[in-house]
Amino acid sequence: MSSTPRVHSLEGFSAIGTGIYLRDTREQCQDTTSHSSSPNVILIFGWMGAQLKHLQNYTQVYTKLYPNASQIVVRCNPDIFWTTTSFRKRRLMPVIDALEALHCLPSSSPAQRPPRILTHAFSNGGSLQMTLLGDMLQRKYGSASVQGSFTSALILDSCPAVGNLKTIKLAFNAVVRNPILKFIVLSAMYTLHFIGLGLSLLFGKRIMMMENLRIEMWNSRILPWMGLHTPRLYLFSRKDKLIPWQDVTQHAEIAKERGMDVYCELFEESEHVAHIRVEPERYWTLVQDIWAVAISKEKDED
For strand 70-76 and strand 20-23, is the pairing parallel, antiparallel, or unpaired? Predict the structure, then answer.
């Protein structure tokens, strides 16, 4: 029986950390002018347990659509749920180094025009990585971490949602194959879930990870180059068993009430993070359309 060959690296990318990959186009694209409508940097946060062969379906199309854009891919391992925050932060440090090198942060050359940044996050796992990076940047650079107006857009694929024990089990069943390891992991997750729930009830604080994530995703400056002006596109499906479409719709509506520039697209037939498999043309048209919205705002400011 033939099987899909395992992908050990992303084509055209260099591994710069554990689960972090960089496609740096600066040398071959030195004539990137301010008149180009392409993003300069595309930041991709993969869903929990996403294999490289699946993430490559996105990086390859982005390379075709925006060949001059550098890309950073951040994977999400299942251990994000039981490793310490300090450990996860250390693992994300290469992302900050790459952003600095690509002139996205204060240590970069102030004489250069701020880069255009397209951020694409998948599921709760990718969202957790994104919000943690945002917290790191806030702590490192403070509120003045970005000066001036950045052209940016945010795409949220199959997220966010609070989740429950059923969705936790479905998520780990999808990424953990070994039955013994699966039993250990799920037992630990159930224990952590009930401990968090008990402490939340006892102290009246929201300390459940996914509930906190949902709140953090209402921050218009999840990443420092974003703001109320940043168009954010929610992509979700009625058939998603992990992320209920009603949860995503509610999150988007509240974000809109808080002044954010929100766009929503509901798919009917696709499973979790599988919209491009069912309707690839529609998916990539939506990606290009939301980026065109970001570019139109840049032109309005000029």
Answer: antiparallel
**CB proximity list for 100: less than 8 A, separation 6 or greater:** 107, 108
> Greater confidence, 54 or 201?
54
Separation of alpha carbons 42 and 144, rounded Å:
22
Burial (CB < 10 A; 0-12, 13-18, 19+), residue 216, is middle
- E-state strands within the chain: 14-17, 20-23, 41-48, 70-76, 117-122, 152-157, 231-237, 261-267
Lowest mean pLDDT among 64-78, 88-102, 128-142, 195-209: 195-209
pLDDT at position 48 is 87
**CA atoms of 19 and 21, how far apart (whole Å):** 7
290: closest CA among 266, 261, 269, 248? 261
Q: What percent of the chain has pLDDT over 70?
A: 73
Give the predicted TM-score (pTM) of the model. Answer: 0.84
- β-strands 14-17, 41-48: how paired? unpaired
By three-state DSSP, how is residue 186 classified?
helix
